[in-house]
From TrEMBL:
Organism: Enterocloster bolteae (strain ATCC BAA-613 / DSM 15670 / CCUG 46953 / JCM 12243 / WAL 16351) (Clostridium bolteae)
Domain IclR-ED: 64-247
PANTHER family for the chain: HELIX-TURN-HELIX TRANSCRIPTIONAL REGULATOR, ICLR FAMILY (PTHR30136), HTH-TYPE TRANSCRIPTIONAL REGULATOR RV1719 (PTHR30136:SF35)
Pfam family of the protein (one): IclR_C
Protein name: IclR family transcriptional regulator
All residue ranges annotated as the HTH iclR-type domain in the record: 2-63
Keywords from the UniProt entry: Coiled coil, DNA-binding, Transcription, Transcription regulation
Any one GO MF annotation of this record: DNA binding
Length: 252
């Protein structure tokens, strides 16, 4: 490990955590001489990694960090990260698994792995899922702020598909509360009779949920016993996807 590079990264982390810091403060945290920190700061300033407040003389993160972070986000594809875990869920449950993500205020199926079961109820990539009666739609909604939910349903048509379809905003609110409490969503024949679906959330680096993992199967296959088994598996790998997306990395 290159010591000077490691210390430079540590300096950036210290400044990020504190918002700003003086050379004396950084030296104290690192346990090194002020002259060492001063030299490292000069290099970081040269590359716009830090800047100095002319009044307080404290160092803060420079704009180069913003530029680099945008590059990370632009090149980060959640489907690429999630795909190996979709296969693991499929292997463990023997069910078809799909990944759904929000785009333009709608829920889309963006990836799927098909099981070898005879019925093979797999979702189609590109399919739009309804907010009120799909496991993936309800799952994402459950973790959105009230203002977002109210905006979505201001002029929303609660289309009636089966006798189990949620058709009022009040009942949907109760359902979303239940989803947050149990950590997964269930579509109990709400869109198609004879079919049940499960979904668990995937969190991104900022703690937001804009995508989730789903499973679809005949109602005889998704019973109380298998719901527990499947959701444990889905939560396990959903948590690993979230971790790879940066969730929890800098959260206390």
């Amino acid at each position: 490990m290159v010591q000077s590079l490691a210390r430079g990264i540590e300096i950036l982390s210290i400044i990020q955590e504190r918002g700003s810091a003086t050379i004396v403060e950084v030296a104290s945290v690192l346990g090194v001489d002020k002259s060492t920190v001063s030299r490292l700061m000069a290099t970081l300033m040269h590359y716009d990694m830090v800047s100095i407040d002319p009044v307080s003389k404290k160092y803060r993160l420079g704009f180069r960090n913003l530029y680099l972070s945008e590059g990370v986000k632009k090149n980060f594809n959640v489907a690429i990260v999630a795909r190996p875990y979709l296969y693991k869920i499929c292997d463990d449950t023997k069910e078809s698994v799909h990944l759904a993500a929000m785009g333009n205020r709608k829920m889309y199926i963006v990836d799927q792995v098909r099981s070898q079961r005879e019925y093979n109820l797999s979702a189609q990539i590109g399919m739009i899922e309804a907010w009120h009666c799909s496991a993936v739609g309800k799952c994402v909604l459950a973790y959105k702020p009230p203002s977002f939910i109210e905006d979505i349903f201001r002029d929303y048509d609660f289309e009636h598909y089966t006798s189990n379809t949620i058709t009022t905003y009040q009942n949907l609110e109760k359902e979303l509360k239940k989803i947050r409490e149990q950590g997964y969503a269930l579509d109990d024949e709400e869109r198609t009779l004879g079919v049940r679906c499960l979904a668990v959330p995937v969190f991104n680096y900022s703690g937001n949920v804009s995508c989730c993992i789903g499973i679809s199967a005949p109602k005889e296959q998704i019973t109380e016993a298998t719901i527990k088994k499947y959701t444990l598996c889905m939560k396990k790998y959903g948590s690993q996807i979230s971790k790879e997306l940066g969730y929890g990395l800098y959260r206390s």
